[in-house]
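step: validate -> pass
step: tokenize input -> pass
step: predict -> running
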Amino acid sequence: MSKGSGGGATLAGILFGMGAGALWGLVFLAPEVVRGFSPLEQAVGRYLAYGAMSALLIAPRWRTLAALMTPRILWALAWLALAGNLFYYVLLASAVQMGGIAMTSLVVGFLPVAVTIIGSREAGAVPLRQLAPSLLLCMAGALCIGWQAVAMPGSGPMATRLAGLACAVGALISWTAFAIGNNHWLRQLGDMRAQDWNFLIGLATGAQALLFLPVVFLIGVGQHDAAGWGKFAGVAIGVALLASIVGNALWNRMSRLLPLTMVGQMILFETAFALIYGFLWEQRLPTLWEGAAFVLVVLSVITCIATHRRPIAAEAGLSPLAESL
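step: predict -> pass
step: emit ->
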């Protein structure tokens, strides 16, 4: 199935994107669940597990894949692993612990805008002016979450909250680079299975996590009892399996089915699910501003989907109304 195969590919891509967002939203909750552990400890633990799982799953095909490795591909794997995994997760966990889930979701929620603007420059992409309603809705939703974060009393010193904001911006930049670079390489390596590419990135990330392991011990690990370490191991393995293995696999399948402008919008599912998990963790309902933001995010995705479906209907010789029947 390819990006040009019509409405079926679009629907499948959307479902894959929704599944990836549901699993990736868990990474916003994990830093709160194991708050006693530093962001670097959490990142190293998660990606050691990710690397070990990838090694086991890729072993049967390793000889075939190893023959395809070139210096360019190895370099791409190294920087994608660092930007999209280790570096991103350290910054995101720091932002959650210092600024909260809502603020972090706000900043990372701008990622679809950045990816969509860059994707609109591709040949054959939907013009940016047609995506304007979707982008405006996305920005309005992010601003609602931001107003909520500013209006509520801070849970810590202003300096700490500003540091959290800076980490969230860094995470945004890091993930934007990964999303665009990963999409580029998935297209370049059309003959390689998306799942194999995911496992190769997992191997690269696991190797980098091993390099950072001495740094973790040099800085010093906190004082934790057996139950604390057990909880940490469970979260690290769970996030590695659900977000890194399954979530990344769904995302890579989606990336091959949807244009980059639409890929950017699918990231909004991660923001939406992160907010839902945050509300469940805090055992509360969303406020008026948070509810408005959620509705705006959903409308942003729907309008983006509608914009991309119109060209498909035109190519098939159908009106948008006829296609929907």
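step: describe -> The chain has 15 helices and no strands.
step: cleanup -> pass
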